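How a chain folds remains the central question behind the approach discussed here. The record that follows shows the chain in one-letter code together with its fold in token form:
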Amino acid sequence: MPSAPAGREVLFEIVRIGAFAKVTAIDPTTGVEISLSAPAQSDDSILRAAGLRKLDYVLAKKAAEKNPKR
């Protein structure tokens, strides 16, 4: 199961509502929060991995916006 790299904390919340699961992932260091929805029957490890991938994408995008290449 993919998880946060060693020394990095990521908070996850998974809420199943009907046919869908809402996944929230938060990087407590930066305060960046993402959410996504997926099928409710998905395994928690898959939901966490998807949340971590999206969080990494958003953090990289914010870093690129902060330090644009010339």
About this structure: The radius of gyration is 13 Å. The longest helix spans residues 44-66.
